[in-house]
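Propose amino acids for all 335 sites.
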């Protein structure tokens, strides 16, 4: 296959993976909003446990049908991943409860700088000036759209700190484990989803009772709410899978930057389906700034030197210098 056609095929698969993630993520946000706001099912942690239980069932069926090949993930790595993932879910849920909406949004925006720091320290990634500036533009645009009142308290800050760092580490580990053990997205989900489902279904009801003062077993499970719960769990399978696919194909930082496109889409869909309350000039301006930043990031990070491993760039520069020295010495011999 020609290099051009390979690049075109990769670009097409990247776009398909990203669109899969956007559709499932926006879909689950809309379904969960209806489930919680309309039917009063406010048990977010327990619902996430049900999501992973459904994902576990899906991976078990696919493994039984032969679509998922046997693979190995060492228990220490599995344990670290599950700890990061569960602290991410719990930390962000508690942060939303203890913080103002404005500070919660700022905490979510800070995941990009944290993910960048992890890649710089752990993977020796170097970002170009344009890539850094484009990330700053994305953050500015989303902040203008979403950040309103900002008030900080000690326990809310601690919850946000735990949520942000554990989320960044969990997303870093998705990419790291797939690369280190040559795991497909299905393989990694097959290892992690059962453990996450078990732990979240155990701690979820207690955490949700602490956060909402309501018991999950006391909820009125009528036909309509049960249908929405099943629908949420079904879409969550695609959301979990598409997240692993996207982070595996891109990186945690790229996933975070592109993820803010979902924030913009959710805002737009909210204005379309739920009325134009809150739509004003500074929100529209923020959307425009964020989209410009995302386009700039895609362009800047794809250029040579936009985002690369430091060791590779150093070795290539050494080879170039060595080549230049060889050429000059050959020229001296000819003279």
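Proposal:
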């Amino acid at each position: 296959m020609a290099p051009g056609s390979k690049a075109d095929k990769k670009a097409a698969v990247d776009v398909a993976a990203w669109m899969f993630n956007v559709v499932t993520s926006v879909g689950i946000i809309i379904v969960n909003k209806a489930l919680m706001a309309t039917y009063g099912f406010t048990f977010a942690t327990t619902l996430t446990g049900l999501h992973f239980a459904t994902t576990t069932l899906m991976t078990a069926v696919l493994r039984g049908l032969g679509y998922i090949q046997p693979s190995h993930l060492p228990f220490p790595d599995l344990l670290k991943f599950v700890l990061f993932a569960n602290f991410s879910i719990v930390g962000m849920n508690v942060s939303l409860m203890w913080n103002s909406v404005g500070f919660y949004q700022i905490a979510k925006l800070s995941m990009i700088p944290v993910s960048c720091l992890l890649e710089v320290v752990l993977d020796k990634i170097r970002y170009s000036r344009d890539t850094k500036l484009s990330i700053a533009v994305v953050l500015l645009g989303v902040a203008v759209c979403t950040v309103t009142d900002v008030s900080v308290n000690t326990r809310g800050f601690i919850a946000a700190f735990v949520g942000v760092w554990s989320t960044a580490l969990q997303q870093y580990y998705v990419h790291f484990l797939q690369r280190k053990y040559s795991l497909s997205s299905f393989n990694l989900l097959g290892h992690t989803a059962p453990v996450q489902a078990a732990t979240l279904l155990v701690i979820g009801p207690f955490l949700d009772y602490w956060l909402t003062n309501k018991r999950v077993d006391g909820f009125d499970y009528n036909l309509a709410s049960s249908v929405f719960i099943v629908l949420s769990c079904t879409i969550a399978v695609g959301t979990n899978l598409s997240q692993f696919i996207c982070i595996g194909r891109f990186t945690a930082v790229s996933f975070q930057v592109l993820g803010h496109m979902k924030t913009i889409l959710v805002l737009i869909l909210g204005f379309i389906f739920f009325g134009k309350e809150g739509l004003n000039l500074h929100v529209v301006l923020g959307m425009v700034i964020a989209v410009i930043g995302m386009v700039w990031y895609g362009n800047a990070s794809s250029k040579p030197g936009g985002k690369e491993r430091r060791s590779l760039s150093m070795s290539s520069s050494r080879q170039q210098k060595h080549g230049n020295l060889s050429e000059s010495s050959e020229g001296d011999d000819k003279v």
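The CA atoms of residues 106 and 143 lie 7 Å apart. Residues 3-37 form the longest helix (35 residues).
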